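User: tokens in, sequence out, please.
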């Protein structure tokens, strides 16, 4: 499952219609929560956009990435895709 939590950086990003439009333009089809009060942001102790977390079937954070995934040659997207594939291959444990 993919879930997005959008914490606005600028004032226009607080408007739900703007977030919906940007998500549609980017081809994002998963649910996105709008965190205007930064409650989720603060609960996770985030300090930069984006902050990406991969959570396993048991609810444990297995991997994370802070900042732009592909900024200045970083291969964050490639790495996280690999980690997602690994996690999907894990047997489901009760």
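Assistant: Sequence out:
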């Amino acid at each position: 499952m993919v879930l997005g939590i959008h914490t606005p950086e600028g004032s226009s990003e607080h408007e739900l219609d703007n977030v919906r439009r940007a998500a549609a333009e980017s081809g994002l089809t998963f649910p996105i929560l709008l965190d205007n009060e930064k409650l989720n942001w603060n609960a996770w102790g985030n300090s930069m956009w984006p902050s990406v977390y991969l959570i396993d079937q048991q609810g444990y954070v297995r991997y994370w990435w802070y900042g732009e995934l592909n900024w200045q040659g970083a291969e964050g997207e490639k790495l996280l895709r690999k980690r997602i594939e690994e996690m999907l291959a894990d047997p489901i444990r009760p």
